């Protein structure tokens, strides 16, 4: 049983591990869309296998939505139809690809579909203007998604069309633009192709030195042996045009025996034809056999463009010694050029025929007609290509302008919205802040009010306690002393003195306890009180009181000021031994400032802290929102600065 289990596990593992998909999996009923797509994309499979796989993949995917997977399969289907030379199907599926890509605005597949259509018009129908148009549209779509490599490749295709239509200046401009988009490492092959195209343009414009330099640059960087040989052949042709025959012969002899050339009859025919032609130009006459060999190979392979080159070279070869043969070969060029719609080839051989038959007016007229027709056609093509590029540029600028306007509007809207949000947030924050401030100040006012009430109560309790102490210690003691004098029948004069002190002391208590006059007589009562605590030994000096409008001072401030000054005078009288007291009054913006000073003995900071009367003055002043600052030291007098609100 265990052996069977192990065998089953191994079998399942081997089955699961065999992930490679090939054509045999197509018909097992378990293959999905992606599997078929992978088979179709794999170039190692045969074209027939790929063809069957893409059709099955397409039949499955078209049942679903028209998403990116559908576009991917549709594009590959078009490519495989191209490989199968089913050009009608290529055209049909390329148009469908463009339609569905446009529906979901897929820029990548819009670029690919227009590329396929451009290729169809270029290679299959030879409609250069339609091909140029679609290549240009493809380029724009790839530009929209910043696929610079594809942009460069489309520009190469466009420049080749311009070159084939003899728009060499336009082709130079387009291929130069292409080089700006190609990646210096990833697109080496296409950069080399661009150099080759640029060199050919210079060659056609008779700028042979520039052409030679660009061909050499292409040969230097190209990795493909096949392309390198083609570029060397082009370089040899340029040397031939520039009458550098030795250089041309050297290159052609070095490549004619290459295996790539020998295994391709078309390439081999081109090389031996060019080599025989340049040798003939250099003065070697033993080239007829090779020229005929090249022609026969081209006829065998139905290479009609190659046949035009061979017939032209043979016509030139026989022009010097066999006018009939030369005419026959040139006539073959004219026939083929009409079949291939290549009037330039006809014009070139008509020019040779005019040399053979200088008196033939019909040939001259035909040459003039061809020349004018070609000029008109080239002008039309140049104008058409320029128009396509100009219209596309205008369209892109219009799109960019609209995008810019939209972006500016969106930015303005966003800024306006942000401004509104900021203002609204600021307003809400301000409301919250104001509400919090109102709550905070109300709460603070309530707390301060409670604190003031507590301080007032403390002041009252302190004052009552002080008065109680005075009544007990001073007044009570003197009453007991008087009673003892009466009981002992003491001298009446002593008793009278004691009773007089009791009277004055009781009057002071009464004034301290009773309400202070705060009306029009306040100033007089205040100064009477100050005078009461002075004598001939203590001088009182006051300044600034006349400038004070006492009616603007609130009653509570008047009462507190009265009692605080009385406490300071009492403290001076009892403890300082002062001989002079100075009190300066000053009006402030929001209240009064009173500076008290005496020349007494002062007191230490410790003694200050122990004086209950002075502590009471602080509490009284603080209770009404005022301040009092003491400044004293032992032996240096006593000062106090008082500030009270209005």
From TrEMBL:
Transmembrane among the record's keywords? yes
Q: Which residues cross the membrane?
A: 421-441
InterPro entries in alphabetical order? HATPase_C_sf (IPR036890), TPR-like_helical_dom_sf (IPR011990)
Tell me the keywords, alphabetical order: Membrane, Transmembrane, Transmembrane helix
Name of the molecule in the record: Tetratricopeptide repeat protein
- Protein species of origin: Flavivirga jejuensis
């Amino acid at each position: 049983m265990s052996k069977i289990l192990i065998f089953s596990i191994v079998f399942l593992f081997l089955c699961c591990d065999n992930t490679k998909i090939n054509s045999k999996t197509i018909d097992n009923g378990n293959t999905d869309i992606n599997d078929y797509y992978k088979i179709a994309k794999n170039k190692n499979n045969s074209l027939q296998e790929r063809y069957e796989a893409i059709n099955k993949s397409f039949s499955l995917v078209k049942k679903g939505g028209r998403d990116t997977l559908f576009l991917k399969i549709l594009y590959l289907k078009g490519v495989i139809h191209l490989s199968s030379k089913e050009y009608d199907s290529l055209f049909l599926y390329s148009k469908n690809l463009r339609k569905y890509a446009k529906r979901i605005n897929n820029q990548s597949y819009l670029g690919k579909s227009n590329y396929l259509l451009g290729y169809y018009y270029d290679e299959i129908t030879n409609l250069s203007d339609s091909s140029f148009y679609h290549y240009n549209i493809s380029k724009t779509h790839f530009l929209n998604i910043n696929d610079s490599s594809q942009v460069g490749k489309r520009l190469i295709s466009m420049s080749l069309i311009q070159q084939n239509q003899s728009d060499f200046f336009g082709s130079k401009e387009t291929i130069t633009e292409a080089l700006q988009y190609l990646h210096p490492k990833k697109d080496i092959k296409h950069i080399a192709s661009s150099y080759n195209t640029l060199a050919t343009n210079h060659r056609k414009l008779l700028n042979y030195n520039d052409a030679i330099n660009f061909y050499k640059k292409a040969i230097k960087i190209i990795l493909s042996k096949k392309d390198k040989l083609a570029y060397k052949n082009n370089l040899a042709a340029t040397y031939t045009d520039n009458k550098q025959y030795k250089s041309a012969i050297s290159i052609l002899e070095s490549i004619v025996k290459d295996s790539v050339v020998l295994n391709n009859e078309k390439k081999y025919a081109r090389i031996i034809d060019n080599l025989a032609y340049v040798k003939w130009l250099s003065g070697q006459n033993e080239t007829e056999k090779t020229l005929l060999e090249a022609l026969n190979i081209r006829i065998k392979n139905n290479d009609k463009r190659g046949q035009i080159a061979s017939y032209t070279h043979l016509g030139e070869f026989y022009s010097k010694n066999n006018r009939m043969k030369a005419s026959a070969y040139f006539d073959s060029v004219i026939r083929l050029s009409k079949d291939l719609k290549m009037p330039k080839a006809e014009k070139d051989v008509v020019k040779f025929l005019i040399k053979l038959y200088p008196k033939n007016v019909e040939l001259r007229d035909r040459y003039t007609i061809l020349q004018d027709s070609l000029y008109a056609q080239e002008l039309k093509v140049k104008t058409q290509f320029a128009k396509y590029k100009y219209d596309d540029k205008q369209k892109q600028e219009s799109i960019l302008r609209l995008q810019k306007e939209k972006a500016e509007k969106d930015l303005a809207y966003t800024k306006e919205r942000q401004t509104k949000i900021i203002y609204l947030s600021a307003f809400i924050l301000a409301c919250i802040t104001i509400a919090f401030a109102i709550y905070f100040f109300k709460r603070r006012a309530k707390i301060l009010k409670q604190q003031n009430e507590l301080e007032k109560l403390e002041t009252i309790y302190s004052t009552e306690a002080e008065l109680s102490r005075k009544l007990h210690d001073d007044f009570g003691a003197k009453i007991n002393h008087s009673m003892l004098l009466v009981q002992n029948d003491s001298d009446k004069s002593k008793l009278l003195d004691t009773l007089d002190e009791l009277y004055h002391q009781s009057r002071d208590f009464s004034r301290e306890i009773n309400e202070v006059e705060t009306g029009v007589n306040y100033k007089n009562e205040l100064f009477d009180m100050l005078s009461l605590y002075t004598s001939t030994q203590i001088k009182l000096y006051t300044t600034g009181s006349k400038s004070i409008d006492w009616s603007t001072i609130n009653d509570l401030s008047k009462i507190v000021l009265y009692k605080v000054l009385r406490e300071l005078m009492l403290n001076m009288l009892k403890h300082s031994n002062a001989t002079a007291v100075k009190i300066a009054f000053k009006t402030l913006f929001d209240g009064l400032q009173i500076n008290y000073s005496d020349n007494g003995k002062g007191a230490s900071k410790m003694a200050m802290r122990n004086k209950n009367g002075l502590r009471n003055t602080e509490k009284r002043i603080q209770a009404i929102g005022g301040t009092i600052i003491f400044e004293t030291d032992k032996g240096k007098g006593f000062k106090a600065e008082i500030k009270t609100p209005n």
